[in-house]
Amino acid sequence: MSYFVSDVKKIYKNRLVQITLLLFIIVAVSDPLFVRFVYGGQPGFSEQVGANPFQFWLLMNSSGWGHTVYRTLLFVFPVLSTGLIFFNERKTSIYELLIVRKSRTQYLISKIGSVFIVTLFNFLLIFIVNLIVTHLCFSADAPLTEQYNFLIPKEETFARNLYQISPIMMELAYSFLNALAIALMSVLVLGIHMIFRFQNRLIAFLAPFLILYAVNYAEGLLLANYMQYNLSIIIQPRAASALSTCITMADVVLVFISLFAVDVIVAFIGCRRNRDAL
């Protein structure tokens, strides 16, 4: 537990992590404010486009600049969320000093657990803050427009069941899925840092990002006819209404279990690679 507490503190004290969280929370807060007071001030906007919060939360508002920033940085966030802390410790004698205190296994497991939990918590919290600000800016009682109807999930999608319970339930579910995806990818990045000995910080940053981006690009090509198995598609709420393919709960579970399995394999290889540190 001492390793875990120490690692959590290191993550939050890391300047890279601090800047990332600060910038993203600014995006999450300012995006709905921008829509409300810039676009919303235009004549006929509420009547033609709508003024319901379900239309303008960060993950749904695909035409908003905040959504564009988020999607652009989707595969950068997992790298930034690690703070490159393990890379920095492995490059110095700190690694050896820390594992002497208890054990290498506890040290590495703590690194994995802290990165996953802190990243999941951070991004879920920011997404929830975005939902709160969006619901304060817009009214759930606003008349539903034709534009709103385009956003309603199709029948048989897992999102439709959530939407029928409550639009807020769907918003929270997608917020959790996006935060979970980033957290799992952060563990994958950490595993890559464990396996490979990068020479400098720039390469340690770029290599995992390029791997994540390349895998996503390959998925887009290989799964062109099976988009329900593409992670970056699944976590987009617009996909539930825009795609002809229905994304079911079974599809979501399968994709996330697969990503979790990849994390386990990569982390295991990374731990094996670091077994001879002493």
TrEMBL record:
Alphabetic keyword roster: Membrane, Transmembrane, Transmembrane helix
Transmembrane segments: 21-39, 68-87, 108-133, 172-196, 203-227, 247-271
Record's protein name: ABC transporter permease
Species this protein is from: Allofournierella massiliensis
